[in-house]
Design a protein that fits this description.
Number of domains: 1
Number of helices: 7
Strand content: 5-15%
Oligomer: single chain
Structural class: mainly alpha
Shape: globular
Mean pLDDT: 87
Low-confidence stretches: none
Number of strands: 2
Radius of gyration: 20 Å
Order of helices and strands: HHHHEEHHH
Helix content: over 70%
Length: 211
Amino acid sequence: MFNLYPQLLKLVVWLYDVVNCGRDFEGTATVSGIVLVVLILTPVIVGFILNLLERLEFKFFCYFFGYRVAFYIVNYATIAGTILHELSHTLFAFITGAKVTEVSFFDHDGEALGHIAYRPQGPFFLQAIQHSLTACAPVIMGFAGVVITSYFFLTTTYGVWAQILLIYLGISIINHSSMSSIDIKHYFQGIWAVSIPLFIAIFIFCRSTIS
């Protein structure tokens, strides 16, 4: 759908020039470290901001329409986003080896509509990966969902109702692509395990751009 490789190459070369640390082993390690930190913090920042906006949205509707109406608008009216959110947690927990014990899309406790429960399994290193990737899954899948819906919105020829449906899906996804405080805690609990192979992959990619 999109060819990002040339843009990534340009971005890495630009970063080398900005950091101005040379293009030897140490310079590549520095650039790779910067990219790694950006990649680690991006889901947290995006997830936290979206979570804050979701809470502000809830409080806004509460103030004007009351709790029940606010709960319905923020959660039930955008149920597609809630389903994607919980399925994202479930999918990442499953593919990393955790045991999913419960999935719900229709909670009635507090301001959240759904939740999942999982039990980490395997060695400590693998459990750390399960915690981290499961926690940030809604941000990753939410970004992918917005990209896909935007692509079809810009290219679809099925008429106005299809456009309206895509707009609804996009809003629903954005509205629930957040990370709660518990998600952020689990994310940092295991991100060190993800960082090791990710740094190696980034380092290899950066070296390939200058070789």
